[in-house]
Amino acid sequence: MNDQQLLRYSRHILLDEIDIEGQSRLLAAHALVIGAGGLGSPAALYLASAGLGKITLVDDDTVDLTNLQRQILHTTERVGQLKVASGKTALAQLNPEVEVIALAERLEDARLNALIADATVVLDCSDNFATRHAINRACVKHRVPLVSGAAIRFDGQISVFDSRSDTSPCYACLFPPDRHFEEVQCSTMGVFAPLVGIIGTMQAAEALKLVAAVGTSLAGRLLILDARSMEWTSITLARDRNCPVCGVRHPV
């Protein structure tokens, strides 16, 4: 690290658990952030501010006025722009040292596999089950840790699915792909603005911990937040030996 980097990241370096070694890991890492909306906004901002070296931001949507109530990556002046272009501008203003790749596309399996194979950590900030399951399958295939978040109305949840460990469950263990789960959208159900900030920031924290090898991740645990009462519920997750995704990849 040069003198400017030592100064910029000094508050991380002062932490014994991170130090220069951990910060160097962050600078060398590549995070794939899928979704540049309510969750992806705070997640990407904190990854960039912390010095994560390369961030690939994926989203095929444009900035709308209704987004600005919670999607803090974007501004009124950038309404109508692609979210990834707006996000790249914001991250460059925050930390010009970070390499930001902006992909305005909806990822299909082949493309998703290629991107995840090149990532150190993946943050799922998407808003539908089909995308989440596709991301999970690719993360299990390539043994890349996945930080998954979701938020609707006043309810949020976050977990880590770390397929580098044979004992860690995957997203499909929690939400089997052959079961029907109702899709809910904030465009019809609403969402409490700070909720996505809480969950998205926690996704960044878990991703940084995974990269820097600090502490214990949320692998094997699901945290659920009721923001009306600010009460957290922690649920222990176990691998499903019959899971059609990780049960095949890591037989019990």
Q: Would you kindly provide a written description of the structure presented here, covering whatever features stand out?
A:
The structure is a single chain. The protein is 38% helix and 18% strand. It has helices at 3-8, 10-13, 19-28, 40-49, 83-94, 109-117, 129-142, 171-174, 186-189, 193-212, 246-249; strands at 30-34, 54-58, 99-103, 121-124, 146-152, 155-161, 221-226, 231-236. α5 links the parallel β2 and β3. α4 (40-49) packs parallel to α5 and α6 packs across α7. It is globular, with a radius of gyration of 17 Å. 44% of the residues are buried.
- Strand share of the residues? 15-25%
Average per-residue pLDDT, rounded, comes to 94
Level of helix content? 25-40%
Q: What structural category characterises the helix and strand content?
A: alpha/beta
Overall geometry: globular
Q: What topology, given as strand order, has the largest sheet?
A: 3-2-1-4-5-6-7-8
Q: What is the secondary structure topology, with strand pairs?
A:
Blueprint: H1 3-8, H2 10-13, H3 19-28, E1 30-34, H4 40-49, E2 54-58, H5 83-94, E3 99-103, H6 109-117, E4 121-124, H7 129-142, E5 146-152, E6 155-161, H8 171-174, H9 186-189, H10 193-212, E7 221-226, E8 231-236, H11 246-249
Parallel strand pairs: 1-2, 1-4, 2-3, 4-5
Antiparallel strand pairs: 5-6, 6-7, 7-8
Task: Give a short summary of the structure.
This protein is α/β, with parallel strands linked by helices. It is built from eleven helices and eight strands. 38% of the residues lie in helices and 18% in strands.
